[in-house]
Every structure is written in C-alpha cells, then in structure tokens.
Amino acid sequence: MTDLSKQENYSIKTVLIIIIWISSTLNVFGQTKALKPDRKYPADSLRQWTTGLMDEISKKHPGFYRYTDKEKFGLLIDSTRQSIQDSLTQLQYYRKLKPLFAKIGCLHTGIELPEESKTYLNTSNNLLPLELFVDAKTHKVLVSKNYSDNKNIQIGGEVVSINETPISVILNKLLDAIPSNGYNQTEKILLLNYRFPFWYQEIIDAPQVFKVVLKLEGIEQTFELNGASKGVFPSLERLEKNYNLPLEFEVKNGIAILKIHSFADTAIKQSGQNFKKFIKEVFQTLQQQNIKNLIIDVRDNTGGTDDNAALLSSFFFDKTFRYWDKIEVTEAVAKEIKGVNKMFYKKPEENNGLYLWKKSWITKEFDYYEPQEPAKMNFRGNSYLLTNGLCLSSCADFTAVMSYNKKAVVVGQETGGGYQGNTSGMLSKATIPTGLVISIPLQKYTNAVDLNKNFGRGTIPNHETATTFENWINKEDVEMDYAIQLINKK
To answer: Full-prediction pTM beyond 0.85?
Structure first.
C-alpha cells in the first residue's frame, strides 16, 4: 500500500477570499510530494479519486448538470472509472479525465498539468512540426505551416493519418477533450487551428518522430518527421495579444470601426488605456460626426471585466434594459457565506430550490442582474458585431444581449461563450493527489435572453461566414469585408 492510500478520502472545503475582482482561490484537496514524471498511481486509488473528485465538484459547481443530466453524467463517470485498469502516470490520468471534464460544458472549469509537468513535457522535441487547419464544415485537416526539415511537404496537403492513426480518429479525440461552453464547436476548431501540435502532445502522444501521411491531388505520400521544440512556434502570449492596443477606434470612409480585443481591466490598464473614458469618447465622436454605421469587432475577445461589457451594452439602448437574469450558487457554497464572509458578500437567497446571489458590498460586479440604465450618448445608427469562436465569457454575454435585443447585426461565426450564460465568477483552485490542478467556478450566470433559444450553443450570427483554408493562410478579413458590403448595400 502506497502513502497515497491516506489521501483516498478527501473533500473540497470552500474558503472564500475577497479580492477586488471577486475571484477566489480555494484550498487543495490534499498535499502531494515532489512529482516524478514516470511515477505511477495504483488503479484502485485512481478510480476512487475519480469518483470522489466528480462528486465534490458537482456539489460546488452550479452548472455541473447544465448540459449533461445527472443520470448520463453518472454513466460517463462509471465509464471513465472502468477504463482505468492499470496504474497510470500523471499524464496518463490527465488524458483520462480531460474528456470527462469537457462533458461539463464549461470553459471556466479546468483540469491542467502543473507547470513543472508542462515544463518537463517540453524538454524534448516532441511536438508535431506542422501547423494544421481544420475545416469547420468538412473536418478535413490541411497543412497550413511547415516547421520540419523536410521541404517537400506542401502547404495545403491533406492529412490522412499521424503515426498510423486516421486523422478522423485523432480529431474526434481532440474535440472530445477540449473544453467548451455547452456543445459549441467553433471555439474548439479555432483552438486547433492555432495550437494543434500542443493539443496533440497533451491529449494524444508526445513522440520524437512522427509518421505523417499526406494526400495532395489524390496521391498519398508518407513523411517521417522529427519532432519540433516549443520554441519554433509562436508563443501563446503572442497569439493572445495579436494587437497593438486592447481598444482601437477609427472612422474610415464614413464607417466607424471599434475593436474591443479584451474587456479585462488589467490588460487595458497595462496598455495605458481607460475603458470608460475611451468608450465615452468613441460615442461622443459618433454623435459629433453623425456616424450612421458602426462595426464592433469582438473577435478573439476572450472576456474580462463584466463592468466593461455591461457598460458598452448601455450605449446601444435608449431605455432600461436587462443584462443578466440571475446569478446562482449551489447550496453548499451558499452555506459558506457566513461569519466574516458576510462582511463582504450578502448571503444568497433561496428561491424555489435555487440559491440566488445578491449584490456585494464592495463591488458592482454582481449588480447586472438588476435593470440597467441606458447611456446618455446612446447610438441610434446601424450596428454590426463581428464574432468568432474565441468570443468567450463576458464577451459572449455582451454579444448575446446585443443579439437578443436586436441592437446589432451579428456577422461571423457562433460565439464560443454560451448564449444563455456561463458558469464563472469566483474561482476555486485545488490540487488533487496526482498533482493535477483543478479550477472550479462557483457562480452560474444566466443572461437576460430567450432561454428556449440556442440551448448549449453560442450566439448564432445573422450572417454566418466560414473561414476557408485560403482565407486562413492569406489572413483575409472575411467578416470585416462582409460587414462593409452589408453597409454599402444599404
């Protein structure tokens, strides 16, 4: 019996720590010793931990059964348990749990390798030396960039298999493991188009040699490629901040273009900008120049501060409107709002079995379930909203409210964030005995939209555009061009 047997029964204890952003970190499941990559954990322990882990998350996570009902989730947990027949390393166990976590249908719920494990994983050249493009409609996978030493690989070659596994099998496995809100696919496809080698490394395998079969003009060719290092790929930070400033505005040929790359106050302030001041100046300009057409570009905006998203919404309304309908927590979390915590939070109120969050004493972050007042300089022209699969969290809330109230014509792809809302807000973090890091959001937000529409989906555009392979490699701005065409047709 290993020393892990002492940790087989554990629970999450909710400890709310107040910070200005109203996100909190909870204590750990249990303590772990220094990690060894090849260390294996007994199958019996892993099965018990899986059951205990999912049981505890279901008690704290208010959106746990939002998209997968309790009976079906129970079957999924049992299936995962039964698949653990032998002892597993941390990485192997991670690959078992990742698809199970994805079934929660919550972008803010995470299971990740600890940083030291990610560092170890990248000590050798074990990344597929190709960037790949997944066609959202056909699921064909094409080579979009070649980092290998073999210059005979042609851009646009269709991937047939990798290390003798059909690409369709690989793609399905990756899509099952990548988290998304509800049943959304646009976010998953976009993440693969940006980071396919890294998802393959974490979820499928990390070999140092890749046998890749490609098809070009009907002819299949096999290539044996050495793995690449992390350093040859664009950094994640560079991909996430592929803009000069978080907030950009210009008027071009009589059309105003407002780009909101992020709603996060931290990123905005770091760039020397002030969201409220910037937005007020934008709408003042629109009024002064009598602008009739405004394009709001929120593509790749992964969210941020709710204050900012709600504020932007107010400039498109001329009367009181609703932003969120309600904010829920579980009974277990509601019971933790006591003692010193009540100095900062108002205790959630029980209403027909739901525990509804109320306003906080120290922040406006929870105020947006109340009726909202319109801004004084509200825009009365034509608005066009550009979206894609990386419109997440507060960006998705903003888009849903704008779409539902018909305040903008939406152009692009379905948002990655849910139309009906998300589970986020206060975040608990925990480390389980294998060293994997768990993140659990504690608040379920429901947007003030039609709850019978787009269940499990993001906001569906009024005009959907598909990104083709040619668009992707040539960096063509399909959505912007389409919106401008709509304006010019008026």
So the answer is: yes
Question: Model confidence over 10-44: pLDDT tens digits?
Answer: 233 333 333 222 333 333 344 445 567 789 999 99
3-state secondary structure the chain: CCHHHHHCCCCCCCCCCCCCCCCCCCCCCCCCCCCCCCCCECHHHHHHHHHHHHHHHHHHCCCCCCCCCHHHHHHHHHHHHHHCCCCECHHHHHHHHHHHHHCCCCCCCEEECCHHHHHHHCCCCCECCEEEEECCCCCCEEEEEECCCCCCCCCCCEEEEECCEEHHHHHHHHHHHCCCCCCCCHHHHHHHHHHHHHHHHHHHCCCCEEEEEEEECCEEEEEEEECECHHHCCCHHHHHCCCCCCEEEEEECCEEEEEECCECHHHHHHCCCCHHHHHHHHHHHHHHCCCCEEEEECCCCCCECHHHHHHHHHCCCCCCECCEEEEEECHHHHCCCCHHHHHCECCCEEECCEEECCCECCCCCCHHHCCECCCCCCCCCEEEEEECCCCCHHHHHHHHHHHHCCCCEEEECCCCCCCCEEEEEEEEEEECCCCCEEEEEEEEEEECCCCCCCCCCCCCCCEECCCCHHHHHCCCCHHHHHHHHHHHHC
